[in-house]
Amino acid sequence: MTTEHAGGHAGPANATEYIQHHLAHLQNADKTFNLDTFWISAILGALFLFVFWLASKRATAGVPGKLQNFVEFVMEIVNDTVNGAFHAKSRVIAPLAITIFVWVWLLNAMDFLPVDLLPKLLSLVGVNYLRVVPTADVNHTLGMSIGVLICIIGFSISAKGAGGWVKELFTAPFHASGPVGMILLAPANFLLQMVELLAKPISLSLRLFGNMYAGELIFILIALLPWWAQWALGGPWAIFHILIVTLQAFVFMALTVVYLALAVEKH
Questions:
Q1: What pLDDT digit, counting tens, does each position of 9-23 carry?
Q2: Which of 13, 41, 193, 215 has the fewest Cβ atoms within 10 angstroms?
Q3: Do 248 and 211 meet the contact criterion of CB atoms below 8 Å apart?
Q4: Residues labelled as active-site residues
């Protein structure tokens, strides 16, 4: 794999090229894989695991430190959401929710870095293209949503059995008491079930992608302004963007929990 974007140049010459430059991904030679999205996501995922592992190793029953207080605060927020939405018993749902919330927040928070900081640093070693916000890449958000879809199907089969899940696909939401009615309603039920099942990951991915892509684009446009205007406009937008970054991570996590709760419930 190469770390050079095909056919590109080292830097932009005008506003249009500047925007295009910052919206171009670091790709492999075949231009089929966004290397920047993959590596930044992997590094931030490893950072999340290390910080929470470190907090667990340093956890104490006495006066907690700042790191332990922070981790407990995050876990309390997620735990309240899980307890309020998911009423079945599962050893997976809480760790999954915490992972989603913190990881997505870290991915979103890359938007707070100055637009040209990492691209300029990596350009010194020959990397001329870099997008630093993985959640502004629809491939990444769709990939996470497909993972949620797999969890939905897995939770459904675990709670109802493979036969029960398949039966529900053809017998809900429209119910019939006799076999003739069940056969007649089966195609409509299956179609609605498929629409509902596919709409969940699509809405999850596009909601997160749309908000983060818009935020990234606004920061790029602000970076085109004179330095004094950048501070005047970029400061308030960055403060407001803190809410967006946190809210989008929370929404992705909360909807995942809700979808999994629906998956284990019987019609």
A1: 444 558 889 999 999
A2: 13
A3: yes
A4: 203, 207, 211
